[in-house]
Structures are given as structure tokens and as C-alpha cells.
Amino acid sequence: MSDIFRRIQYLLNRRRLDEELAGDMEFHREMAERGGRRNFGDTLRLREDAREAWGWMWIDRLGQDLRYAVRVLRNAPGFTLAAVLMLALGIGVNVAAFGFFNLIVLKPLPVRDPDTLLRFKRSAPERYAYALPYQEMAFVRSHTKTLSAVLALNTARLTMEGKEGPASVHFVTTNFFSELGAAPKFGRLLDEARDEAPDAPLVAVLSHGFWRGQFGSDPAVVGRTIRLNGRLLSIVGVAAEEFSGLSMDKPDLWAPLVQQPQIVTGSHLLTDLKEGAGVRTWGRMQPGVTPQGVEQELRYIIADFRQQHPAEIWEKESLASQPGGYAKSLMIGDRSGTGTEQPDKLYPLAVLIGSLVFLILAAACSNLGGLLLARGVSREREISIRTAIGAGTGRLIRQLFTESVVLGLLGSAAGLALGCLVLKLMMVWTGAPDWLDPTPDWPVTAFATGIGFVSAILFGLAPAIQVARQRHRSTFSKQLLIGAQVAASCVLLIVAGLLIRALDHALSASPGFEYEKAIAVMPGLGSHGYTPEQSRAYVDALKDRMRELPGVASVSATATPPLAGSNVMVVGVTIDGRHLDVHWNRVDPGFLETMKIPIRAGRTLTSSDTAGILISESLARKSWPNENPLGKHFLSGEDPTGAQVPYTVIGITRDARMDALEDPDSVDAYMLPGKDDLTKMAVVVRMSGSLESIVPAVSSIARSIDPRVHPRVQTLKGAFQQKMEGIERGTAAAAVLGASALLLACLGIVGLVAYAVSRKMKEIGIRMALGARPGHILSLVLMQFSRPVAAGLIVGVGGAAALSDLLRRQLFGISPLDPVAYVAATALFIATVVLAALIPARRALRVNPTTALRCD
Amino acid sequence: MPKKEMPAGALVLLILRVLHSGPVHGYAIAQKIYMLSAEVLHVEEGSLYPALQKILLKGWATSEWGLSETNRKVRFYSLTPAGRQQLETELADYSRVAEAIQSVLKTA
């Protein structure tokens, strides 16, 4: 221990102590000379030997190596710039991908103590839901001992006077802001004492963005009133800009959850125990409590609650927890379903992106490795001089590798900047909330630095060993590097090709129903307190009035308007041990006719088919592969009278992807709406004339039926294009990756061919002197690349095929082995690389035989 | 004069022994060993100073400034309590090994 202490002390006073030692030795020498002795060794060497005892020599040597490396790289600015750019590209895409992962999964939300937040979902063996009935949440809140606080959130889109389109309102428990450590920008936030009482006045807290957009950043906004669903609310404060609010969407304002029924007249949110209604719930753990401990306690509490409400609370229900302080937990929203929950759908996508960005890095590294080997030739003289004056192989390898590490770290810095810029642009492009801040934090910086080191090892170590041993002329390692680079680039190009093909297919293919001339009118009756009976009357009135409009071909109603992404009901079924996700759609009898989805077998729904179900062809094939599905029983559910009935298949429809365009098969089922679905109904209209005329007409019709209701109107074409946007972004990203790979491959090939030409000058000269034709010379230069390129292509095609399982989910209606994509990508690659190779190869043809012969 | 290579351990033992009689500078250590060994053991600069650094590192000696006989500022090395301890241990070890070698030489 004290040894280490003395060593450190030495290190701190190294300069002084070294000088003292030198003084001692000089004195020693003087005295010895007086005594008539000579024949001393090299002073510096002797001093170094003496200092060795302290064990700090490696720092000196590292310093020397670094200084030398910097000098060498500065003397070759072209090479250094090219290398850093390649690395910046390779590292940058990795940093962007990791930065995104960090933002969503690793980085805690900007709230107080994110680590002690838990998000809860209802979980039973046969079903799950991410929203809890309000009463269940309240019961947990009043009985828990392991949680110090329970927070809840319910989102709604309400009509606000003076605002175009609905306002996004988040109803939250009054402890929401204080528990999350939020500070107001103006006024105050919600407060338990003032806002929880039954007679408390209606209040709202504005989000920063809404305050800026709707109120022009008016600092005197506090105390003003707004009219929401016809009720007056007074603005008590504005939240700070960085407040995340436990949601991925950007709410316009927050209001107390207990005031929800007063604002949404007739709402039963606080009393309704039915599934579907409910609040997202978080809990704050007491100090020293584990999530397992919380779950254990909640199991007993829920069991007690079930005693009071045996019909609504599920058998064997528990509240499963997951870390609630991370963006990932916010992405789930309000999903619910039956059967076991599908494993995370993001996982294969993450693996796919991870493999693609790593391939870019691999391409950049093998490229750079090739350049370093080629550079070894021009450094032969330097290496042999250094060997001659006594540098060992180990020392040389270390020196050469240090150069690579310096390059790697420069690449890290450039890659970090590039990656974070890309991430930032991505955030702006996708309209992510402001608090998702892509500024690099320490995990991202550490990742960038680490990957710089890893790439230094990948591209630098083998060439350093080869060059130090003067074996860099060996063709094998060079061919290996070319092969690796071709393989990586090839996989990237094929994947990009597949995604582009898939996008093209998706854009040209029909989702299986008429969407180009249709609109969906979503009145959102539930959030205006409509009962099922009132809803039916409203929807019928709306339909009748719409039919009277000129240019309307057909009108119908559905609980899940196609492509709108709202109210999507996914029901998990197990048939013969296979898991199937069925998209469950509650519709009017005329829905299929309005959407132009033909019936393939059986018959369509009539208003008396309370227990009838229509299923799509794909679903029929998956459920009963070799049987006639007509007349079979399929699932069960609530019929229009509210009773549970087993459904009987009465018809098979053509495939139509009502919502999930990315699913390879349409797994849709249609039945009449149950009692509870009526408040969610939307009206779909197919036009024969133009769409533009109808949108304003819809608004005035809706207002004439009930002035409170401002329906959301969406053209299905717009919704379709919106869905396609996500796919387009993914495809654009893949295309950029593919192009980067191609660019890297070209740069590498140009460098290597130029090198090959310069090595073969003499041979080319002789051949030309003997009358060789240009074609021969070209093939002499290029043929040496043919084998590694061919091998790389084979490996690349195989690699792309191996990724096909991951790709399957991202491709829309095309096979992951789509031959067009493979052939096109490979051909593009070969053509580009050959063209790139020809640029330096032309030099070979211009060689003057007499000059060439004089070359060494 | 043929160069006598000294075993590394022995040099440290000799230095510690020289320091035992009081603070000395580096050159004086070499001189003393040379004189006391009847001009047999010649300690080179190249082995003396590394050995001294090791002794400093181990904390067996400390160094401080002093004036040499030629009035030059040089470092004087002096034994620490730990160094004294080490000297005793090494002396004991040495005698045991020397005796053992002697006994083998006499009887074998």
C-alpha cells in the first residue's frame, strides 16, 4: 500500500525527482572521472534504467508514441482526413442508434427520483390492460403501505372554444406535479388541498407549448378563463418547458382528474369499473421497498377489491409493475387485450437496426484496414530505419497501433458530433416532445469513445502487426479485408433494396378497401358523456344527414375507423396451440359495402346477426387451414343487448388491412357493435364526387345535431399517407445506410486499386513494352480483386438472407428473399465498384514503359 | 580488472549496510563498497542508481539535500526504521544461506 503511495508521490513530483537523480548521477560521473575512470554508458539510458524502478515509464512511452502519432498523421493530412471521415460515418450511425436507445430505454425521464417510479398494468392469465379503472387505482392508493404516492392520468380530446380542432387534455391526480418535481413557469400547478374538494372551482394548467401557441406567450394568462366542452375553467398556471408529464404526446393542458365528470358531462370515468375505461397509473416506491415487494402487497389489495367487485375485477388479477421513469414505459399508452401479451414488437426492429449500423462500422473499418496496409508500403523505409536503430517488433506494433487509436479517437469525436446531429434532426423530423433531449450525456459519450477504441482494434491491430513485421505485402490479409468490406456493403445494399421495394409495393398496393375517396367522421361521443342510446341516435342522425349530401355514395358506421389508429382492438386467440392476433372491428351492416370489401363466401352481416361474425380470408386460412370455416364458432363477445354470446362465422371477406398495414396478412374480424361500442362509433363516408366539399359540410351538420360536439374529420387517404410516412422514414434511413456503404466501398476500392497499380508499375511496363493490349493490363490489375469481391458478394448475399427473419416484420407484402432486390443490389454494387476501380486503373494504361522500368 | 557482476539482491544488502553507518551520497556508497571490499567489488552507476531507486520506493531509505566534500549540492541517503528492519532480515537470511553453503562445501 505504501509502495503505491510512494509511487504516486513520485509521479506527482516526477520532473523534480528526475532532475535530482540526473544531478546525482552527474556528480557521480565527475567524481569517478577525477578518480581516473572513464568508459561510462549512455547517460540517458542509465537514467531511464534507474527510473524504471518507479514503474511509470509506460506513461513516458505512451506520451512519446502519442506525440509521434500526431506528427505522422499531421504529415499525411489527406490520409488522416479520409480516415476520420470514414470513421465519423461508421461511428456516427452507431452513435445515433445508441443515442436513440439511450433516450428511450436508458435515460431516466426528467422528473424527480425517476428510479422509484413504477408503472402498473392489470394482468391476469388471460388478459391485460394498461389502464386501471379509476376506483381500482383509488382503492390501491388508500390501502398501499409500500407506495408513498399513486399518480394517475387520463387523456381526452375535448372541444375548446377559440381553438381549431380538439384540445388534448390530460386529467391527472392533483399530486401529479408535486410528485414529479415540476415547477410552474407562471402561477401554480395543481394542488391537493385546493383542487381536490368536490366544490373546488374548475381549473387548468397550460403546457408551455400550448401557452406559446394559443396564448402568444402572454405572461398575464394566469387568472383568465377558457371554455372546454362548454364549461368554464380558470387558468391557474403554466408548466415549465422541460416538464415531460409522463406521456409521449404533447398535451395542451392538464386538469384535475376528479373534475373530469364535471367537464365531460355524463362521464362515468370515476365510477365505471368496466374494462376499457380507466386511468394510466404510476406509484412511487417507499424507500427500501423493491418492485417485487410492491407487487406482492398489491396482489392482496386487489384480491380484497375483487371481493367487493367480483364481476369487474378479473380472476387472479394482479398489478404488474415496470420501471416507470423511462420513455419506454410511456410508449405503451393504453393498450389492452386478451391472451398473453405479445412480446415486445420493438425488439426485432432494434436488432435489425443494430446489425445494420454495425455493418456500416465494419465496412468502414475493413476499408481503413486496407488503407493502412497499403500505407505500410510507403512506410517501409521508416520502419526499417527504426528496426535498424533497435526498435523491437513489439515497440513498432505499439507505435503503429497508437496511431490507429489516435485515428479512432478523432473518429469518435467526429462521429459523436455527427451522430447527435442526426439524432437531433430525427427528433425534429418526427415531432418528438421537447424533453427528449438528444444532447450527448455520459453513456453516449462513453459509447462513442468505446466504439472508437473497438474500431481502432478492428481496423488497426492486424495491419500494425503486419506492417511492423514487414509482411504487409502478403495478399491474404488484404483480400480478407476487401472481402469483409464487400460482404458488409452488400448486406446493407440488399436490405436497403428490400425496404425500398417494400415501400414501393406498399405505396402502389391497395390495403384491400376503398380509401382514396372516403372520410371518417369521429365525433368522440364518449368524451361528451353520451349514453349508448343517445350515441345511437346521434350516429343515425349524422348518417341520415350525410346521405342527403350531394356526391355521397355510401355511409356507414364503425367503432374502429380504418387507418385512424384509434380504438384499435386486438384480440389474442389460441387456435390449436398457435397464437393469433385478430383485429376486431365493430361495424354497421353496411360497412363492408361502404368500404368496398367484397364477400368471398357466405353472406354479409344484417342487423339481426347479433351473434354473427365475418372473418377475412387470411384469418380463415390461419384458423381452419383445410376446413370450411362457415358455421364454425369463433370467439365470443358482447352482443347489442349487452349479453355474452359465442360468435358464428357467417361469411368470409376479402383481405383488407384496416389498420396494421405492416402485417403481412389481414387478420380482421367484423361483427355488430356491442352496447359499449356505441359511444365510440365513427361514421365513414364514401364519395363519388370530390372530397373537399364535404369536410366543411360535416362540421356544420355535426353542429346542428349537437353544438357541443366537434367531430374529428379525416380523409382516409390522408391517414394512409400518414401511416406510410413512418415506413418512408425507415426506408429513407435504410437508403442512406445503403448509400453510405456504397460510398465507403468505392473509396476503399479506389484506394486499393491505386495502390495495386503503383505496385505493379514495373510489370505493367514490361508487358506494355512486349505489346500487351490495354484490356490485358486492366484485367491484370483488376483480376486480383475478383476473388475477394466474389467471396464477399457470396457472404453478403448469405448474410442478407440470414437477416430475413428480422426483416420479415418490416416488409410489406414482399418476400425477404425478393430476387429483384438481391439482383438489383448486387448488380448496382458490382457496377459501382468496377466504375470506381477504373478511375485509378486508367493510370496503368498511361504508363510509359521506359519510366516504368526504372521504377523499383 | 575483470568486472565482478554482483547478484542483484546482494547489492541492496551492501547498500543498506553502508547506509547503516550514517547518511551518504550515491558516489560515496560506491566508493565505500569498493574500498571495503579491498577493491574487488566495483559498483557501476548503472546498477547503483536503479538499486537506490528501489530502496527509496520500498521506503527503506529517504533522501535529503546536503553538501558534498567538494561543496556541491547532492542528495544524501539515510536509512529509515523500515530499512534497518530490512537490513536485519537480509543479514539473517544471508548468514543462514552462507552457512548452509559453507557446510555443503566442507562436507560434500
Our Rg estimate of chain B from Cα atoms comes to: 15 Å
The outline of chain A comes out as globular
Report the sheet with the most strands of chain A, covering strand number, pairing sense and barrel closure. 12 strands, mixed
Helix content of chain A: 40-55%
Protein name (chain A): ABC transporter permease
InterPro entries (chain A): ABC3_permease_C (IPR003838), ADOP (IPR017800), MacB_PCD (IPR025857), Macrolide_Exporter_MacB (IPR050250)
Family (chain A): Belongs to the ABC-4 integral membrane protein family.
Domain MacB-like periplasmic core (chain A): 80-299, 510-657
What is the secondary structure topology, with strand pairs?
The complex is a heterodimer of chains A (856) and B (108).
Chain A: H1 2-12, H2 14-34, H3 43-51, H4 57-75, H5 77-106, E1 117-124, E2 127-129, H6 134-143, E3 147-158, E4 167-172, H7 176-179, E5 184-187, H8 192-195, E6 203-206, H9 208-215, E7 225-228, E8 231-239, E9 253-256, H10 260-263, E10 280-285, H11 291-308, E11 318-323, H12 327-330, E12 336-338, H13 346-378, H14 380-388, H15 393-430, H16 442-468, H17 475-508, E13 518-522, H18 532-547, E14 552-558, E15 569-575, E16 578-586, H19 591-595, E17 599-602, E18 612-616, H20 617-623, E19 633-638, E20 644-653, E21 668-671, E22 682-687, H21 694-705, E23 712-715, H22 716-759, H23 761-769, H24 774-802, H25 804-807, H26 819-845, H27 849-854
Parallel strand pairs in A: 4-9, 6-8, 16-21, 18-20
Antiparallel strand pairs in A: 1-2, 1-10, 1-11, 2-12, 3-4, 3-10, 5-8, 6-9, 7-8, 13-22, 13-23, 14-22, 15-16, 17-20, 18-21, 19-20
Chain B: H1 8-20, E1 24-25, H2 26-36, H3 45-58, E2 61-67, E3 73-79, H4 81-107
Antiparallel strand pairs in B: 1-3, 2-3
Helix pairs in contact in B: 1-2, 1-3, 1-4
Domain Transcription regulator PadR N-terminal (chain B): 15-88
InterPro entries (chain B): Metal_resp_DNA-bind_regulator, Tscrpt_reg_PadR_acidobac-type, Tscrpt_reg_PadR_N, WH-like_DNA-bd_sf, WH_DNA-bd_sf
Protein name (chain B): PadR family transcriptional regulator
